[in-house]
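Extended Data, record Putative isoleucine--tRNA ligase
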Amino acid sequence: MVLLIALLLQSIFRSFDAKDVDVGLNNAIVTIKGSDLLERYYETLFKYFKNLELMPSRHIVVSGYYFKRDSVTGIIHCTPFFGKDDYSVCISGSVMAGKEGLIACSVDNNGCFTREVDDYAGRCVKDCDKDIIKSITQMQFHQINRIKPLTV
């Protein structure tokens, strides 16, 4: 399943003609409000932190308003460790509690993946972008054709 903000289809699929985007939108299986997704659970692509798998709040849709709707696809993954806005959204959405009070963080203080992320453990997060995209492609969900550079 792919969830996209309808207003952004043209900017997301720049290489397609406007008519192709319209055809895609007209063939949508269902159109729903983002608010209708709140508090719904989803399955993650990667199964790291299996010891926290019993805590469904880790994979729940919550609401946040700190992004502009013309700059995102509609789904943003947050973690309480990566900034004030993410932290606030996770607190308000009750994402903070984990099994026995644990909170999973996949990145260490040096910006490298922790041992729990065994495929990329010890490697700098941004150095893994291409490998992660390759893994997702092999899962046959979809193909990602570009990487948006991160400015730190």
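Summary. The chain has two domains: 1-31, 34-138.
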